[in-house]
Amino acid sequence: MLSKLLVKRFVKNSNDTENKNTRQSYGLLAGIVGIVVNIALFSIKLLVGLIVGSIAVMADAFNNLSDAASSIITIVGLRMSNKPADEEHPFGHGRIEYISALIVSFMVILVGFEFVKSSFERIINPEPISFELVPFLLILVSILLKFWLSRFNKYISKIINSSALKAASFDALGDVVTSSCVALSLLLPKFTTLPLDGYIGILVALAILYSGYSLVKETVSPLLGEAPDPELVEKIKKSTLEYEPITGIHDLIIHNYGHGKHMASIHAEIPADIDIMKIHDIIDKAEREISEKLGIYLVIHMDPVCIDCKEINPYRAEVEKIIKYNPLIKSMHDFRVVGDGENKNLIFDIVVNPTQLNKIMTEQKLKEQITQDIKAIHPNYNCIITVDTDFM
């Protein structure tokens, strides 16, 4: 496989993908290959477009030229994202990679708009296109090259988990479709005299625009703060629960500052009667070891809970039974009881999915519903409920 041979030849320590230098070498290789292939494709298609006088072919040619520029931006973006943290950016510069992918996306959209205009002008003022075998075969070769480039970028993006290269792979695959339309525009004049070049040019340009839109949508998501990787979530949860005497976890929040740059915080439930110095040492150890193992910065907050409290457990069991059948509620934590006699305050947090909650009822309405259900059993009880968002 050519992709593996290139990696073996040009990337040192290729298996150490968490090393920033290795990751940068992968990005440099992908960028250089992208530049070489796209400039070659630009030259081929521009020559073919000039020979046969096809606006669709020339549109595809300049699309490849923009892809070469995109590869340069990808290289620069990956290098800048590896800059160490400083006073202004204490979590590093990893998000620059997302910004470089966004720039690539806007360049793709710009090319699409330009050739919508050019193709529309060709529809108004059509020019005859003559079929020639050699230019047609050159376009077929360019399609194969672009397909391989898409697979190569996808291969590298999976190895180093790069959003910029994933965007480049997606873009290249879109180019396979547009180039196939271009090949069709060269073939059709052999069978018809209809001026189809401008119309196919429009289709190519629209495909380019859609590709750019899809890339923008995918790239903006991590910049806005998308949900964390489920695999990372499970690793953090599982790793935290391995430390005794942590009995439960909740309120896990993960911030993404670029590849390999995550900050996470989690609440860990511990027995309320344990020695404070002992559990403090355990929490410190857990933070240090999990952070090192998963390559993140983890902060653990201690939540003391009464595990075997005979007074509180019956109240907790009643509330759990009431909320068990509510599909909006995922879990409950930090349950406490304050007050004497029949006049008691039940204090607890519930975890909900905000999307589902907003579709069905308001947060206040949910609190009132739970309170009414509890008061139906214990009229003198009051509920102090905190609604937590499930960020997963």
Describe this structure in words.
The chain has 392 residues and is an alpha/beta fold. The chain is 61% helix and 15% strand. The strands form two sheets. A three-stranded mixed beta sheet has the order 1-2-3, with helices on one face. α2 runs antiparallel to α3, α3 (55-81) packs antiparallel against α4 and α3 runs parallel beside α7. The radius of gyration is 29 Å and the shape is elongated. The mean pLDDT is 82.
Residue share in helix: 55-70%
Overall mean pLDDT: 82
Q: Main β-sheet, in a few words?
A: 3 strands, mixed
Radius of gyration, in Å, reads: 29 Å
CATH homologous superfamily (4th level) name of the largest domain: Cation efflux protein transmembrane domain
Distance between the termini: 38 Å
CATH class descriptor name of the largest domain? Mainly Alpha
Which term fits the overall shape? elongated
Spatial sequence of strands, sheet with the most strands:
1-2-3
CATH fold-level name of the largest domain: Alpha-lytic protease prodomain-like
H and E string = HHHHHHHHEEHEHEEHHE
Strand-residue proportion: 15-25%
Second rung of CATH, namely the architecture of the largest domain = Up-down Bundle
Offer a few descriptive terms.
392 residues, alpha/beta, Alpha-lytic protease prodomain-like, Alpha-Beta Plaits, 3 domains, three-stranded mixed beta sheet, 6 strands, elongated
Quick overview of this protein structure:
With 392 residues, the protein is of the alpha/beta class. The chain has twelve helices and six strands. It has helices at 2-10, 20-52, 55-81, 96-124, 133-160, 163-187, 197-224, 230-241, 276-294, 313-323, 354-360, 363-375; strands spanning 248-256, 262-271, 296-305, 329-340, 343-352, 382-389.
